[in-house]
Batch of 4 targets.
Target 1
Amino acid sequence: ETPAGAPEYQDILYHQAERIARITINRPEVRNAFRPQTVRELIDAFRRAHLDPKVGVIVLTGAGDLAFCSGGDQRIRGHEGYRDEAGVEHLNVLELQRQIRTLPKPVVAMVAGYAIGGGHVLHLICDLSIAADNARFGQTGPRVGSFDGGFGAGIMARTVGLKKAKEIWFLCRQYDAAEALDMGLVNTVVPLAELERTTVEWCRRMLQLSPTALRILKASFNADTDGMAGIQELAGNATALFYTTEEGQEGRNAFLDKRDPDFSRFPWRP
Ligand code: 2NE
């Protein structure tokens, strides 16, 4: 079901059912490589799912069985980035990575076929990765004259360990689904025919849990790596919870009533 009012996208698909938003990169003719327009649409779709209170969990996937995503579209790679329709060159996928990482709902990568290059980093950034048995993973940067030294290196090292992360980047090999599971790069591997069903099952399980607990846990996992921005995200959750208390509301009410606030009935907790 595509929700009413959803924009018509050219490079992606947006579906929602049962509090699960599914965002699909839809360029199978290039193994779901992304161009600036694709990334712009993905950012819009993730924002939509983030803000929609009817959405609890987001699934990112690629159209067809052959690829999740093969990274930046090399045909339109220009002098300093990927060229858009106006000729402007971008690396806007870095903004998308930050968005997936920080939006306060679980994001699940559903991977069939290749997750390669910048497409591999996208699955890495997602909170969970569910792989079909035909999935293949790897970085190609040093072979095609590129690299992702941000989350692509740092989160990779945190996920699979430093030695393995360096191997993945320095050798540009491909790894099958069993190897990916073995190194902790994915959460589970299922037969291709079971991929959709398992992903929905995992999403349904998360949807039965406390949204606030999952929201704050996601921020907590990012907090130390993300420095002040990570603390901001955690602290924003504390502020939002404080707003819901009588103590927090007394300050606002006093201001609106044009009186001094009276916090005397609230305890100084140990
Ligand atoms: C993905 C992979 C391994 C698939 O291989 P295979 O054998 O299944 O398919 P094939 O024949 O290579 O690809 C099918 C069609 O898709 C195009 C191919 O050129 C081919 O087109 P035709 O010959 O049929 O016309 N295609 C595939 N990937 C593409 C891409 N990324 N851009 C444009 N066209 C693509 C194999 O195709 C592969 O290795 N692809 C390249 C992977 C790659 O190097 N990606 C870029 C990494 S750099 C990056 O993503 C990046 C970054 O490092 C930093 C910031 C932002 C992005």
Note: The chain has eleven helices and twelve strands.
Target 2
Amino acid sequence: EVEKLDLKQAIIVGLKEEAKKATTSKLKERKALEIVEEEIVPALNQVGTLYEEQTIFLPQLIKSAEAAKKAFEVLQQAMTKEESSIHAQKPKVALATVYGDIHDIGKNIVKVIMENYHFEVYDLGKDVPSEKVIEAVKKHDIRIVGLSALMTTTVGSMKETIAALKVACPEVKVIVGGAVLTPDLAEFVEADYYAKDAMESVRIAEKLC
Ligand code: B1M
């Protein structure tokens, strides 16, 4: 009998259908957010290490990312969005992965969690130039911007985006996150806040409202 793969293994070896099945069965005993933080993120971190060590290569990295996305789709459906009249005025947040960076799994997780906590999220996508961020902030009168960067090479791009944004929209508050960031780097890019994960972004954004 073939043994069933657990979620972490399914992501590491890059099997979409297995990842989907494992997520569905995990949901019977665990909360969606716990599955994200305790299974999906550690699995992808391990994949990153294997890639860095050249134990796996880009095609496998891509397969793992696809498996993680599949797992997350299942979780997204499970997270119920309860609309409540108390939250008629939803605070607005713009989210973007900075210019030059195409990693968007983390940003997408932040988006779903924030929406669950009644924020209205303007998702600007990945590889986003600073002009596009500024345009969205002005157009929708947004006060909170969340920027994501995953690579050492795109930390500079994050700093440039924040500098341009602060000139064009001085009242805006910027939260930064992404695997490459640390509190020190967040200070270096002159962000207002550093969020280590999706829940921390919610806690910070709630204080800003
Ligand atoms: Co790439 N990649 N990748 N990759 N990839 C990394 C980042 C890397 C660390 C792997 C490694 O070598 N160890 C490395 C960067 C090295 C460095 O600069 N230090 C790397 C590289 C080099 C590359 C390419 C250049 C490879 C190549 O082409 N030769 C290329 C990049 C091209 C580009 O961007 N221009 C590339 C491509 C890819 C894939 C497409 C295959 C895929 C991305 C798919 C996608 O996102 N759609 C991919 C993946 C999956 C990874 C790893 C393995 C996993 C990233 C991830 O999704 N983590 C990664 C290794 C690693 O990170 N350890 C790696 C899970 C995710 C949930 O975490 O995004 O940190 P994270 O989000 C967290 C928090 O950080 C926080 O909340 C989230 C939930 O807790 N957070 C925020 C994130 N954003 C926030 C914003 C906020 C608040 C909180 O604002 C409010």
Note: The pocket of CO-5-methoxybenzimidazolylcobamide is lined by residues 41, 44-45, 47-48, 51-52, 58, 61-62, 65, 100-107, 109-110, 146, 148, 150-153, 175, 177-180, 195, 197-198, 201 (CB under 6 Å).
Target 3
Amino acid sequence: LERDALFRKRHNIHVSGYNVPSPLQNFEELSSRYKCEPYMSRNLAELGFREPTPIQRQAIPVLLHDRECFACAPTGSGKTLAFVCPMLIKLKDPSKNGIRAVILCPTRELSSQTYRECKKLAKGKKFRIKLMTKELSRNGDLTKFSCDILISTPLRLHLAIRRKEVDLSRVEYLVLDESDKLFELGLFEQIDSVIQACSNPSIIRSLFSATLPDLVEDRARELMHDAIRVIVGRKNM
Ligand code: ADP
Ligand code: MG
């Protein structure tokens, strides 16, 4: 659509892939267009988020349309909300059907930050959002452990997988956040073990990154089949 193209241009959003959904004009569309329950708008208002950032405008509809997403936008441009918001909307309600979504972050600090952001956005819903801590994995048998969203570093989850402590076969959404840092840190083996363990064939994977080194591009191409690429330039940020 011409209108979408102009809107993207105005917000410095570059996309590639087929059938790219229209970008969000505003957060109200989450209710009007995507039938999201009122808790999300309430939480966004409470956080003081009036307008979606460019990466949110495009990545949120992509993920809400069940498309794989490869998103690149500068640090501080609101990438966390860009994947947490559609994840919560897609999960819809809490459920005890195993581990339903996994977010991988490069460091423990970033994991806790993402955890806090998830909690704020999920306020008013009884989603079970968990941080994969040493304590959690030390509790031994995690095989029957279930939660809506599990946030972890690759290492922590890799160790639990190796000890056959977690069952990731029902994960529906997998996000590799700060994937440039993840790959920079050389965590290939750990990341691969998580990807393999998330064996649900209908899983939706996505990669978020602040920069676009060839390494990340290559990995994105290997990991995803018909991902929509969303790149937000440095200008206008
Ligand atoms: P990134 O992961 O791209 O580096 P973050 O997701 O950490 O960025 O977000 C950076 C900051 O912007 C955070 O403090 C976050 O709460 C805030 N933020 C996110 N989305 C919005 C928005 N739509 N409006 C205003 N602030 C926002
Ligand atoms: Mg981030």
Note: The beta strands are 13-16, 69-72, 99-104, 129-131, 147-152, 173-176, 204-209, 228-232.
Target 4
Amino acid sequence: PAPSLPSGDLRGVRVLVTAGGTREPFDPVRFVGNRSSGRQGIAIAADAAARGAAVTLVTANVDAGLTEGLDVDVRPVGSALELADEVRAAAAEADVVVMTAAVADYRPAEVHAEKLKKDAQGDTLTLELVRNPDVLAELVANRRTGQIIVGFAAETEPDRAARIELGRAKIARKPADLLVVNHVGWSSGFEREENAIEVLTPGGEVVRETSGTKAEVAAAVLDLVATALA
Ligand code: CTP
Ligand code: CA
């Protein structure tokens, strides 16, 4: 389908988007990470800019080629702690925050100054992980009046009703304005162009359900954001 014409419905709105997946280092060359490519967040940032928004895009380990030429302020980060710092600073200036990034829930308790050597480890290696701050929960707790906050929940649950229940529990815990539930699996959702979503309100209502390209999903989410701002 042809991309919709820029509507200008976000003109002058300051939008902060996070994209990609954080990497949690445990030595200078190794990390614990996830498979998020950043494409869905980039699609949201690009569409917001096309609608007239001033966009800040915090990218966690996103291929720089994917954001080249976009009319957005790109701020690359690596770990969840770095993402948290960048988002805390930028959120103070944002009318809308869309947390698309896959933020690691845990990071290695210890970051070794030198490469771990297997001779010193033996046949098994145990990494102790500690909890990262929940950035979305912080944003919701510190939300300014009128600020719109959107969370994304990647869920592997294949059953739609069960997936929506997981989303309801999540938005009840962290009452963002909208929660986009995104079905992911070994071969869906990540590193691909197609995405399937259900969008929930804090009350647990499904206000939008669609599947399509990440650009189509971005447009659907920003339609809801524009409505919420109006
Ligand atoms: N998120 C965050 N900070 C974290 C973890 C998650 O800001 N430390 C945000 C994500 O960017 C996303 C939302 O919270 O917008 C939901 O993330 P998700 O991993 O689906 O939910 P969790 O609350 O972490 O629950 P769980 O992973 O146990 O399902
Ligand atoms: Ca998580």
Note: The pocket of calcium ion (ligand 2) is lined by residues 105 (CB under 6 Å).
